[in-house]
Amino acid sequence: MPASFYYILSGENEDISENELKTLLEIYDENSTYSCRPMICLVSHVKDDAWAKVARRAANIREVGVVLHHRVVSGWSEVEDFIEEIQSRSEGFEWIHVTQLKNLWGEAEFYRLVETLEKKTGLKTEFKKGPSLRVIVSGNTIISGKTLFKPRSKTGYLKVFDRSIAITPRLARTLINLSAIREGGVLLDPFVGTGTIILEARSMGFIGIGVDIDWSIIQGFSKNLVYNRIPSIPVLSDSSKASFLNVDSVVTDPPYGRGASTRGLDVKGLVEAFLNNALDSVNKGGRIVFMTPVEVEEDVDDIVARSGGYVKSKHYMYVHSSLGRVIYVVAPV
After folding, report:
1. For residues 108 and 128, what is the distance between their CA atoms, to the nearest angstrom?
2. What is the pTM of this model?
3. Among 66, 224, 264, 281, which is most exposed with the fewest C-beta within 10 angstroms?
4. Measured between alpha carbons, how far is 26 from 32 in angstroms, rounded to an integer?
């Protein structure tokens, strides 16, 4: 019988978090089923070890645990029924860890829940080192469970060469995961820059090829590889012209904006030239993941169609009111 697990998602961008989880489930447990509430998804896993593989790889999961019980409630009497049901399962726990996601309940209702939980279970909500009974509220759903995993934010590498415009390791991991690359796969970054995507890919167990047209950038990227003892492949080349064979995914952040050199091409021209070669390079079933400014979205949609690809999904990142990015997930037709 499939076991049920909860995944608490990052609240920064729920669409990206949920789609990353969905992609990882396709890789590690394609027969699993899931449903999502605000900031949390419940997954029925078929494969016993799938939750651990998903949890270790994800960039946007705050916590994973096994579900003991969950219920959709419409009134306080149903909340009390839920508490009665979990009361018998509180043995072995030393305290209750209660979290409300999105603050959809009123303050008085939430504190009433906490007080009733303490009274019925005999456990307190003050932190203790022992195991905790996890209670999570998301909208009109209450979940009880046991925490299995919380991620560590530390990366497994250091960059001796860096630039202020480089993407973060977490974003790099998100893009890699959206590409659906599998263990042992070959990942190409045609605009490698300081190498964050390749460094992150190598830390996840993938083979990385980093390309850049700028010799000074390639030298800096090579220093990062040597410092971290990573046997990756730095390539000095023009990604608008070069193509590769047997690449499982292409993941990149093309240059745009201040501090990035496009060698005379506008963003649209750069994307079109790169995308044509990327579609030729990626294996059947592979994906191309890249970011562009929001203001060229319609043009990029047309470019993808003309290049012989199709958009599997798009995700929006708003840095602030005047700065937005679109994450494209593209596949060959």
Report:
1. 25
2. 0.94
3. 264
4. 8
